[in-house]
């Protein structure tokens, strides 16, 4: 009796485990058109905005900005035509405790929308009195859009057009 119970339990567990293992293998999961690749509290970009980096020339212009606090060598820049980068800056802030991050992304027609989550310290929070320039770097798909829109509470709505020499794939 004990042997048949153990065998039945073993078969049931095997069936459950193999079902779990197979359940996600053939499922099409939606892929996001954007994901965060870096963030910094000291980007050096003193005004709120977005910088669209689609080429080595764009990257060189970004690197030439005075006071840039981003480590560009750590960013995925191998193929900017296939995976452009967007640097979203919150601008200069008077204390620590501010940040910006990617909340969501979506394609709508020929528009790529980046929804940003912007946070700031609570009014009663104890924070360091230091100037910060928070930003986030987002890698985006190169396919399906011509206009980039960045929005988030506390940010101005920002719109950028793709370069004329970049093909919409």
Structural account:
- This is Protease complex subunit PrcB family protein.
- Residues 86-140 form the PrcB C-terminal domain.
- One of its GO terms (biological process) is proteolysis.
- This protein is of the alpha+beta class and 169 residues long.
- It has one domain.
- It contains two helices and eight strands; from the N terminus they run H-E-E-H-E-E-E-E-E-E.
- The strands form two sheets. A four-stranded antiparallel sheet has the order 1-6-3-2, with helices on one face. A four-stranded mixed sheet has the order 4-5-7-8, with no helix packed on it.
- Strand 4 and strand 5 form a beta hairpin.
- It is globular.
Q: What attributes characterize this protein structure?
A:
single chain; 169 residues; alpha+beta; four-stranded antiparallel beta sheet; four-stranded mixed beta sheet; 2 helices; protease; signal; Protease complex subunit PrcB family protein; hydrolase
Structure described in brief:
With about 170 residues, this protein is of the alpha+beta class. The chain is about 20% helix and about 30% strand.
